[in-house]
Amino acid sequence: MVRKTKEDAEKTRQDIIESARTVFHECGVSRSTLDKIAKEAGVTRGAIYWHFKDKAELFFAMREDVFAPMVERTDSLLFSDAYDNPLDAIEASLKEFFRVLDDCPVVREVFEIMISRCEYVDEFSAVQEEAGRPAYEFLEKMERFYRKAADKGKLREGLDPEATARDTWAFTSGLLHLMLGCQKGSDIDKRIPDMITMHMALRRRG
User: Fold this and answer.
1) Residue 86 and residue 19 in one domain
2) What's the domain range around 161?
3) Regions of the chain short of the pLDDT cut 50
4) Are 102 and 189 in contact (CB under 8 A)?
5) Whether residue 27 is found in the same domain as residue 115
6) Are residues 98 and 22 located together in one domain of the fold?
C-alpha cells in the first residue's frame, strides 16, 4: 500500500511538471500561475505546494526533467573512449545535441521556454544565475576539451583553447536561437550538421 502511495505521488509530481511545461509554453513563465498549472494538471494548488516550494522550483524541475537526460546523451559522446581526438568528441556531442532537439518536441519546447518565454523579473529575478548554469557548464567542458586537443597537437596552431571554447559556445548559442526561431519551411535544421562540421574543421590542425 505504501509503495502504491509513493508511485501515485511520483505520478502526480510528473503530471505537474508536464502541465507546467504546457502552461509556461502557452502563456510565458511570468504570466503562468500555479492556479493555471493546477487546473491543467487536474490537481489542487495545495498539491503543487506539496511537491514544490514555489513556481521557481517547479520551473527548474521542468528544466532538469529534460536537461538531465539530454546532458547524459551528449556527455556520453563527449567523454567517450571511442574518440582519440578531442575535436571529434566535441563535434559528435554538438551534433547529438541538435539531433535530439530536432527529434524530440518536448526538449524543443523546454528550450523555447528558456529562451523566449521566460522573463527574469519578480520572483525570478533572484534565480537568473542558476538559470544560466547549464550554459556555463557547457563552456567549461568546451575549454577542457580544447585544452586536451591542444595538448595532443590536434588544435590548429595559434588558437587559444579558452578563446576557441568561447567561440564554440557563441556558435552553439547562435545555432540554437536560429533553429528555435526559424520560419516554418526553413531548412536550417538540415544544414546544422554540415555547419558544425565546418565550424570544427576550422579548428583542426592541418
Assistant:
1) no
2) 60-201
3) 1-2
4) yes
5) no
6) no
Nearest Cα to Cα of residue 193 among 103, 106, 108:
103
Return all residues near 104 (Cβ < 8 A) that are at least 6 apart.
none
Closest CA to 140 of 165, 175, 109: 165
- pTM over the 0.90 mark: no
Instruction: Say how many residues make up the chain.
Output: 206
CATH number assigned to the domain comprising residue 154: 1.10.357.10
Report the sign of the C-alpha dihedral through residues 149, 172, 195, 158, in that order.
negative
Q: Give the Cα separation of 107 and 24 in Å (integer).
A: 14
**DSSP label of 204:** B
Question: CA 125 to CA 162: how far, in whole Å?
Answer: 30
Is residue 24 assigned to a domain? Answer: yes
The answer to the question of residue 206 being in a domain is no
Residues 6 or more apart from 94 whose CB is under 8 A from it? 74, 168, 172, 196, 200
Please answer whether residues 196 and 94 qualify as being in contact, where contact means their C-beta atoms are separated by less than 8 angstroms: yes
- The domain that holds 17 is classified in CATH as 1.10.10.60
pLDDT digits (tens, 9 = 90+) for 8-32: 889 999 999 999 999 999 999 989 9
Indicate the number of domains in the chain. 2
